[in-house]
Write a sequence for this structure.
């Protein structure tokens, strides 16, 4: 098999507009695994927000992987082992909050079954809660409350405000932390050097798989690095233009079983 691993984003890629894996895409990915291919699901979501899709695709049975928090944490679904984890240094939270509190943007992180929300709960915080299936726990003092290890902060708000905050935070902490948009209304703050491409590199080295034996499929801003990195970088028809510009191949949209098409065209 030329391509030994497929790395898949979730929203807008693996799932359709209803956030579901269609039967055709499901069957194609099961067939790929039956023939010896590995699947890694790479998402900005926390681990618990990815697990339902990992279970749907039987990643535990076939030895697949979850790459949560944009690659900040890698889990072997078969063994349950954490292969890699990078924590966001808590010492930077006061600086981040100092800028966030000047805006209407929410600051969020994850604890167990909860989405922790600071600076209020806005409609985009609700979007994240609905996507990942975690209830919201609003806290008054985000910095004091978050005294446990976290892999990232998610800043959620009006897209125009998010763009401006990205500029401010990039200037203030961009040399020490990763700051990037995953959606027009989501700004991710992660440990320096963490992105989906770095995560794939960490994973395939442990598996003895070469870069040219990897397919990466995505649609969003946070998928650009992995699409550039992979031996075959695939952009969905519904992807943003920046990602399409670096992709090796553009497949059909997430509502037209674009992933199933990639499996059929490149792995048979």
């Amino acid at each position: 098999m030329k391509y030994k691993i497929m790395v898949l984003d979730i929203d807008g890629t693996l799932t359709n507009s209803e956030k579901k894996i269609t039967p055709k895409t499901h069957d194609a990915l099961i067939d790929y695994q039956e023939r010896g291919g590995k699947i890694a699901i790479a998402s900005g979501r926390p681990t618990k927000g990815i697990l339902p899709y990992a279970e749907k695709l039987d990643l535990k049975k076939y030895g697949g992987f979850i790459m949560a928090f944009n690659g900040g944490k890698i889990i072997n679904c078969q063994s349950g082992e954490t292969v890699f984890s990078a924590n966001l240094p808590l010492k930077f939270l006061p600086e981040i909050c100092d800028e966030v509190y000047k805006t209407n943007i929410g600051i969020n992180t994850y604890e167990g079954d909860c989405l922790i929300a600071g600076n209020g709960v806005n409609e985009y915080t609700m979007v994240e809660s609905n996507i990942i299936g975690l209830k919201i726990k609003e806290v008054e003092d985000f910095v004091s409350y978050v005294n446990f290890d976290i892999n990232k902060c998610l800043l959620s708000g009006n897209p125009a405000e998010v763009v401006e905050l990205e500029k401010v935070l990039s200037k203030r902490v961009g040399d020490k932390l990763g700051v990037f948009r995953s959606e027009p209304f989501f700004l991710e703050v992660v440990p320096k050097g963490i992105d989906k491409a770095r995560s794939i590199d960490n994973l395939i080295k442990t598996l003895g798989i070469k870069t040219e034996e990897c397919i990466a499929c995505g649609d969003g801003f946070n998928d650009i690095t992995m699409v550039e990195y992979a031996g075959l970088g695939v952009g969905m028809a519904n992807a943003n233009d920046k990602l399409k510009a670096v992709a090796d191949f553009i497949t059909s949209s997430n509502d037209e079983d674009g992933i199933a098409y990639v499996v059929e065209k490149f792995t048979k």
About this structure: The longest strand covers residues 177-183. The chain has twelve helices and 14 strands.
